Amino acid sequence: MNMIPLLIGSSASIEKIREIILQAADTKLNVLITGETGVGKEVVALNLHYKSQRKDKPFIRVNCAALPEGLLESEMFGYERGAFTGAERKKRGKFEIANEGVLFLDEIGDMPLALQAKLLRVLQSGEFTPLGSEKEITTGAWVIASTNQNLLENVKKGLFREDLYYRLNIIKIFIPPLRERPQDIALLIDHYLTKFTLQFGNKNITNPSHYIIEKLKSYDWPGNIRQLENIIKSVIVMGKWEEIVDDLFIEGKSEINSVSDSKKMDVDLIIDYLSALKDENSPEYASFSLRKSTKNITKRIEKEIITFVLDKTKWNRRKASRILKVSYKTLFYKIRELDIKQQHKL
User: Angle at CA 138, nearest 5°, toward 132 and 144?
Assistant: First the structure.
């Protein structure tokens, strides 16, 4: 087996994850790893495998988001020869291959509902039937799943089975985004500098200055550790810390400036609202109050700004919440409260 990826960090959250890994490693209980894209969910899964008594058994990864339903089913459960057009030979499924090892179901939130029912049966009974077969196969695979989605919200929307959610979520490991653990950034930089210097062969790269590290700590890191890895690769190849880091912040500012521009446009909303007060006999004039008008104007401005940012980010709610400096939950509430709808799918 290849060398296990290190879980880098000294923050309290990373220390807690290390503790959970040690506690969960030999329980055989299903584990659900959650966190934004790029935080290192597979690294945690690999560490769970390595710390367990199964470390010499297979670690099999299935990307639930990468395959259509039919192919994903055959990948997981296998098939007999002649089970469908093109099935010219028998194929073992990942559940069978991962027997006594680990089956890592990456991006479980993208698994189709029909397949979720079959997965639930395997988790309950430890048995499955390959496509085109009548023979049941027993598996002892330890299932570890990961997702960057809010599965409870998906349950409420009917996109994810509630019984499967609780079956998977026996032990939960949440990996915070990089922006919430800036103290880990210097350690990550040291690690990736060593790793990629060996890989790309540039021995002359200098360590970042204290100023650069502090600047990187203040960055929002929408792509998390994966984005930091790419930054380090760029620095090793180009050899210019200041230039690459400055470009990083210029990209971020362009998004914030776009929001500021939208606020300027919304002054027109206030003018439109106040124009209704010209006629003293109008219902608007009779019901006018500072408190009520301020509340209504604020809602209209909020709706305009949130709609603008959602469109700008192609309705990536997590990215929009970071730009707006509100939590994902608050943004979701505002979308419903202000009745903001996506005009067209992108």
Answer: 105
Contact between 177 and 36 (Cβ < 8 Å): yes
Q: Which residues contact 286 (CB under 8 A, 6 or more apart)?
A: none
* Cβ partners under 8 Å of residue 30, min gap 6: 123, 142, 143, 144, 145, 167, 168, 169, 170, 171
295 and 229 in a common domain = no
Residues 43 and 24 in one domain: yes
- pLDDT tens digits, one per residue of 181-214: 999 999 999 999 988 888 777 667 788 999 999 9
**Number of domains the chain is built from:** 3
Angle at which helices 290-312 and 267-275 cross, to 10°: 140
Q: Tokens 């988790």 — which residue?
A: 123
What tokens does 62 get? 């299935």
**pLDDT value of residue 282:** 59
Given a cut of 50, the residues of the chain with pLDDT beneath it are 1, 253-267, 346
Whether 193 and 315 map to the same domain: the answer is: no
Please enumerate in sequence order all residues whose Cβ is within 8 A of that of 314, keeping only pairs 6 or more positions apart, or say none: 346
Residue 279: per-residue pLDDT: 59
Residues of the domain holding 31: 12-176
The whole model's pTM is what?
0.71
Shared domain check, 168 and 308: no
256, two tokens? 């914030």
